[in-house]
Amino acid sequence: MARLTDKTAVITGAAQGIGATFARAFAAEGANVVSADILDSADVVSEIRAAGGNAIGVKTDITDQNSVSAMLAQTEAEFGPVEILLNNAAIFANLQLKPLTELSELEWDTMMQVNVKGLWLVTKTVLVSMRKVGRGKVINISSGTVHKGPPGQLHYVASKGAVIAMSRSMARELAGDNICVNTISPGLTMSEGVLANPGWEPFRKSLLTAKMIQRDMQPHDLVGTALFLATEDSDFVTGQSINVDGGVQLT
Question: Which of 55, 170, 217, 228 is the one with CA 20 to 30 A from 208?
């Protein structure tokens, strides 16, 4: 416990779901947590504070540079420089699965705006803060779909493939700044959003038989890997992508 004491962690998309699970876990380890989300983070922030942790919520549109810059300014004013960035915000849970020929340009562009551009904007902005302290950990959330290429979600799979590619490039570019960049690729996770979308049920059932560990994946299954990548335990780990999916067979 307390492996992140006095470290400030920005977690995007932490108002609910997997992001909120990350926020609670990081706060329990002593981090000053910033929930950067376009949604209201009041509930998760109140929960963290009630448990004795430090947290603030900053309404943030990760696709807008002014919004991201304002988030960083508020973060530094409250907690000081950022040492940990967990890029979790993405479009996924409410996806409507459809053939690639039926995807609209708006659907494609919106996916890339949030899942790719948003990750880049937040990272490049927060780097200024990390360089002040001479170190940092960037954790990007990709997806196991990149390795399997499931149908009906081409724009999502493409966006998460970009996350892995960007992470590798970032890791090489930022190594001289003592900043590690790694990726977690989760399997289908039973977050509130996924459970509320009946379109995911067929995938859930098929994945159960494809896993070595044959049970549904829960948000807390990602916590251990995220904490490892955020702490000094992973100081010699960078440019890596870790699958956390219960051992899904890729063929």
Answer: 228
Residue 176 forms part of a structural domain: yes
Domain holding 37, by residue range, is: 8-244
| CATH number of the domain enclosing 187 | 3.40.50.720
Residue pair 20/14 in contact (Cβ under 8 Å)? The answer is yes
Find all residues with CB under 8 Å of 209, minimum gap 6, and list them. Answer: none
CA 160 to chain centre: 11
How does the average pLDDT of the chain come out, rounded?
A: 94
Say whether 127 sits in a helix, a strand or coil.
helix
Angle of helix 42-50 relative to helix 17-28, nearest 10 degrees, comes to 20
Q: Is 248 helix (H, G, I), strand (E, B) or coil?
A: strand
Cα 130 to Cα 76: distance, rounded to the nearest angstrom: 11
Encoded tokens for 236: 């010699």
pLDDT at 199: 73
Question: pLDDT for 161-186, tens place per residue?
Answer: 999 999 999 999 999 999 999 999 99
**Among all residues, which ones are annotated catalytic?**
156
When divided into structural domains, the chain yields a total of 1
Residue 17 lies in a domain: yes
Coil/strand/helix, residue 227: helix
Paired sense of beta strands 32-37 and 54-59, if any = parallel
pLDDT at 206 over 80: no
**Domain-embedded: residue 74:** yes
pLDDT at 172: 98
